[in-house]
Design a protein that fits this description.
The complex is a heterodimer of chains A (143) and B (195). With 143 residues, chain A is an all-alpha fold. Helices cover 79% and strands 0% of the residues of chain A. In chain A, α2 packs antiparallel against α3 (110-134). The mean pLDDT of chain B is 83. The chains are: A mainly alpha (143), B mainly alpha (195). The A-B interface holds A 1-2, 5, 7, 11-31, 34, 37-38, 41-42, 45, 49 and B 33-34, 37-38, 41, 47, 50-51, 54-56, 58-59, 62-63, 121-122, 125-126, 129, 140-141, 144-148, 150, 165, 168-169, 172, 175-176, 179, 185, 187-188, 190-191, 193-195.
Chain lengths: 143, 195
């Protein structure tokens, strides 16, 4: 032990033991292969790291794609709902304006003609929606 | 973050700030290779396992160096990584080594201190150190590995210096007691101990 760290009660036996221990316990040194193995391990860790970062990038891109798709889906739902409500109000307003003229022209058949017109318009919208839907991309394929 | 010019490993911190990771790691390795290995040796008591743990520690240091946040000094950070790797190795060893009671008894008999050549005082001392309680042995060996620096041992084992001194005192007292029991309390005999 260093002189300043020796207690005042240190005996010659303690001093001798300290010196003997210092000689009996030399600092261990790593083998020559240690650095070679370490260099290889560090290279492997570097490869592993790049794979990790690649995986992280792909996962991030996938998350971004999903978020974008979800955002688009929500926009589509809002637009559809808006179109439906707007269409219903427009149809109501149209009927309110058209009905007096129809009643004056067709008499008691005006209700039948109005229902027939509504059916034809509904059929046209339904068929065009079905045709338009079939040509949409498969959303899963975008993932 | 400002770098204190008087801080230890200031040069490495400057390199890290400039994102020169490879150069920083090379300097760090040059400075702490021996210390990390010696810490592993004192904790694991086996050269091969110590090399494995030191290697794992350096790989961890190299991958985590970019995210080193300077909350602790570099040496404290490296020693903490090394200690954790050693503790993991000790845990792993506990699971792997399953000996029967007879095997353990045979092992203890083979390690009997009495079998050491009484003329070889150096070997006797090393054997006695091996038989010390773990905490004493760890502090005592590191103390001599680190050129008798109490402060370095304290940093490496994350202990207050006072605790290191106490453990050292007790370890040496236990060794002295063992030697006296064997009638080896003549100081003149110890001056000739060779490594």
């Amino acid at each position: 032990m260093k002189p300043e760290e020796l207690s005042t009660q240190t005996t010659s036996f303690d001093t001798a033991l300290d010196a003997a221990l210092a000689r009996a316990l030399p600092p261990p040194v790593p083998t020559a292969e240690f650095r070679v193995r370490l260099r290889a391990a560090l290279a492997r860790a570097g490869d592993h790291e790049s794979m990790e970062s690649r995986r992280g990038r792909l996962e991030r891109e996938r998350r971004e794609g999903l978020a974008e798709l979800e955002n688009g889906y929500l926009q589509l739902r809002r637009r559809t709902l808006g179109t439906l409500i707007g269409g219903a109000f427009a149809a109501g307003a149209g009927v309110a304006l058209l009905f007096p003229w129809l009643k004056a022209t067709l008499g008691e058949h005006s209700m039948l003609a109005l229902a027939g017109l509504g059916g034809v318009v509904g059929l046209v919208i339904g068929v065009s929606a079905c045709l338009g839907r079939s040509v949409l991309d498969d959303p899963i394929a975008r993932l | 973050m400002e770098i204190d010019p008087a801080a230890p490993d200031n040069d490495i911190l400057v390199l890290l700030q400039g994102c020169e990771l490879e150069h920083a790691f090379a300097l760090l390795f040059e400075r702490y290779e021996g210390k990390v290995y010696r810490l592993c040796c004192s904790m694991l008591r086996d050269a091969t396992q110590a090399e494995d743990a030191a290697q794992e520690s350096w790989v961890r240091v190299s991958t985590a160096l970019a995210s080193y946040d300077r909350r602790a000094s570099l040496s404290t950070w490296i020693y903490a990584i090394t200690r954790n790797r050693c503790l993991t190795a000790i845990e792993r060893r506990r699971y792997l080594v399953s000996m029967s009671t007879a095997d353990i008894e045979a092992e203890i008999t083979a390690l009997e201190v009495g079998q050491v050549d009484p003329e070889d005082l150096s070997a006797l001392l090393r054997e006695l150190v091996e038989f010390l309680p773990e905490r004493y042995r760890r502090v005592l060996t590191l103390f001599y590995y680190e050129d008798r620096s109490v402060s370095e041992v304290a940093k490496m084992l994350a202990m207050p210096e006072g605790t290191v001194k106490t453990l050292l005192y007790r370890a040496r007292a236990a060794l002295g007691e063992q030697l006296r029991r064997r009638g080896l309390d003549d100081p003149s005999a110890w001056w000739d101990v060779q490594p």
